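Exercise 7. Given the encoded structure of a 661-residue chain, write a plausible sequence.
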């Protein structure tokens, strides 16, 4: 598709209009004569989109436009200025786009321009290739789980196929095979949604090139590409415009890649991806382009939308409301997809996810290589994001350079977050054993409930003696949250519960706090401890999201709610968060054993460690019993026995999770 500029058969009027519009977008700009301080990645698509538009239309105006930007790019002595000139993202982007432009319209360019472009591609490709060889085992050359690796090798591969440089394409192909083998089969991505949309399209680009140039079909190699749309889908906020901002996210708008959606839809027959591609390239396009903090952004992908759109693929609106991605320990649950629906996203895993963490340790031991450069993964295991009524209520901090657990909805021990945090790469050089994980997950496709327990004790400084820090999160069918935090240490500690919001919470007469965001709201109530002082304070977060533009600074103010216990060796927080303008009353359930919260028609009973729940109506050996009063059958988590109102509903030798009856 890419090399021959040949899309799947069939009409594509919307994609063609997008291509022509993008091809003309820079006509009023004067190309730079010297390298700007900022990134020049945008110069590549400024040339490639009009080149494709010329191939499609034959209009010489498009050819003149692509020539203008080609000449601007090739006269720069280096691609990239502030950070790793010729050896990183600027060079990778330009190698890809200008190589395609050379392939598509090279024969139509004046001899001198064509020769200069070929010379420049050979020069920059050689620089990139030599750096990749020399730096193997360090930085992006062998950083298999992140966007610099994918973009730089895809750029090298594009140039290699266009210029006939087999040495380049073979090295890039070997890397691609390793990446596909090592990426998580569940399709999740530890760098977060923004870097997913920035980097994963280049994996698809490379696969497209490989298939067309060499006849090698690796679309089925590993499980990542075939499942990654589902990961992206479940990190969408209700209403589809915004994204959940786990990991480094410049903003909540920079999440869509219509071109990639179309390619995944066509390759794997995913009607939801086709539907979302239409939405992203249509109704949502210009608002994302205007508000996104990531450059070049969504507009330059017009060439991919045109070439990857397959009109024969049916489109269907998403309906699935529960998903769990085990590699990243990511649980996502929602009440629906409409603008006012409620969503929670809850995660816990080692740095980079389980597969990356374990494999990179082998690389370190066997090869002496550092392959896990997960600077975009945060100290956020056990944290969650809550969206409801069209607004973010419990929030993440987005992008940060000095990453801290205190910027997330987490817990502090004696005021301290994770060990070795407060730096960009919080997982670098820490012990292999320092891992978080999720257990006891309930997230069936037909289940109205969602449940998981995050184990995060290992993430804290060993000197604190934290033996247990388990957070259980339950999402009810109506979109209410129950949190149970169980903490134990070798000696007395102060335990602090954190909740981050976009604006200050408001105290209520009953001791609860009201979260507001625009017209949206939620009520927070603690059932335990009852005597913990609660304070609210502003937390400033600053970041430089791109080393290619060192003067750029993003700043954000979080409003942090802190509830801190008296010093004790054990602590328990039992909390409910109920969205809505008139939230249902929540009450603590009297339990002889276990902990419980009821909202009247929904009741949550928990015992994640002892797994013994005893109330007036319930006797269960289980981590959780989840009850509705609408006549629906109960759900249980890790249960061997359930007696409800004197009736034995479950009695099995092995723990069972799911619906009873």
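Solution.
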């Amino acid at each position: 598709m890419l090399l021959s500029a040949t899309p799947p058969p069939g009409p594509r009027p919307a994609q063609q209009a997008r291509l022509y519009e993008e091809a003309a977008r820079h006509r009023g700009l004067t190309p730079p004569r010297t390298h700007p301080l900022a990134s020049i990645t945008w110069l590549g698509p400024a040339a490639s989109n009009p080149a494709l538009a010329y191939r499609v239309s034959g209009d010489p105006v498009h050819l003149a436009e692509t020539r203008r930007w080609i000449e601007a790019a090739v006269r720069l002595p280096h691609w990239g200025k502030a950070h790793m000139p010729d050896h990183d993202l600027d060079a990778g982007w330009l190698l890809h786009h200008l190589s395609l432009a050379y392939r598509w319209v090279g024969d139509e360019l004046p001899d001198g321009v064509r020769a200069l472009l070929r010379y420049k591609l050979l020069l920059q490709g050689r620089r990139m290739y030599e750096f990749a060889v020399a730096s193997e085992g360090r930085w992006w050359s062998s950083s298999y789980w992140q966007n610099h690796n994918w973009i730089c090798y895809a750029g090298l591969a594009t140039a290699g196929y266009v210029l006939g440089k087999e040495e380049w394409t073979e090295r890039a192909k070997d890397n691609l095979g390793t990446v596909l083998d090592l990426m998580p089969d569940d399709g999740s991505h530890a760098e977060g949604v923004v870097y997913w949309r920035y980097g994963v399209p280049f994996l698809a680009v490379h696969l497209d090139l490989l298939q067309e140039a060499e006849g090698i079909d690796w679309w089925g190699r590993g499980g990542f590409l075939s499942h990654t749309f589902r990961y992206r889908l479940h990190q969408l906020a209700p209403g589809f415009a915004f994204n959940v901002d786990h990991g480094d996210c410049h903003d909540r708008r920079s999440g869509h890649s219509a071109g990639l959606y179309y390619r995944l839809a066509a390759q794997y027959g995913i009607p939801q991806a086709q539907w979302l591609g239409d939405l992203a390239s249509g109704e949502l396009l210009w608002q994302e382009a205007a508000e996104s903090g990531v450059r070049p952004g969504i507009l330059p992908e017009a060439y991919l939308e045109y070439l990857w759109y397959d009109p024969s693929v049916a489109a269907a609106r998403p309906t699935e409301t529960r998903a769990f991605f085990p590699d990243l320990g990511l649980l996502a649950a929602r009440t629906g997809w409409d603008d006012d629906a409620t969503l929670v996203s809850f995660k816990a895993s080692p740095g980079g996810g389980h597969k990356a963490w374990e494999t990179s340790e082998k690389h370190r031991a066997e090869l002496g290589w550092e392959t896990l450069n997960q600077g975009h993964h945060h100290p956020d295991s056990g944290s969650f994001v809550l969206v409801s009524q069209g607004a973010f209520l419990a929030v993440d901090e987005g992008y940060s350079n000095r990453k801290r657990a205190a910027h997330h909805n987490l817990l502090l021990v004696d005021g301290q977050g994770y060990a070795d945090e407060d730096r960009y790469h919080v997982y670098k050089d820490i012990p292999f054993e320092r891992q978080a994980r999720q257990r006891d997950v309930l997230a069936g496709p037909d289940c109205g409930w969602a449940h998981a327990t995050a184990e995060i004790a290992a993430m804290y400084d060993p000197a604190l003696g934290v033996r247990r820090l388990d957070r259980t999160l339950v999402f009810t069918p109506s979109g209410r949250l129950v949190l149970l935090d169980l903490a134990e240490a070798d000696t007395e500690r102060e335990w602090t519960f954190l909740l981050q919001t976009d604006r200050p919470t408001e105290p209520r007469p009953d001791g609860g706090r009201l979260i507001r965001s625009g017209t949206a709201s939620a009520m927070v109530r603690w059932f335990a401890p009852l005597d913990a002082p609660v304070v609210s304070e502003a937390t400033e977060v600053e970041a430089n999201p791109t080393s290619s533009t060192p003067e750029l600074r993003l700043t954000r103010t979080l409003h942090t709610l802190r509830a801190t216990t008296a010093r004790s060796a054990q602590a328990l927080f039992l909390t409910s968060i109920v969205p809505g303008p008139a939230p249902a009353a929540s009450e603590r359930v009297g339990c002889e054993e276990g902990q419980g919260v009821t909202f009247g028609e929904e009741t949550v009973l928990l015992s994640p460690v002892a797994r013994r729940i005893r109330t007036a109506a319930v006797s269960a050996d289980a981590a959780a019993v989840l009850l509705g009063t609408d006549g629906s059958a109960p759900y249980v988590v890790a249960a061997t026995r359930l007696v409800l109102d004197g009736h034995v509903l479950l009695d099995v030798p092995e723990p069972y999770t799911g619906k009873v009856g």
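Remark. The longest strand covers residues 481-493. Students should compare their own answers with the one above.
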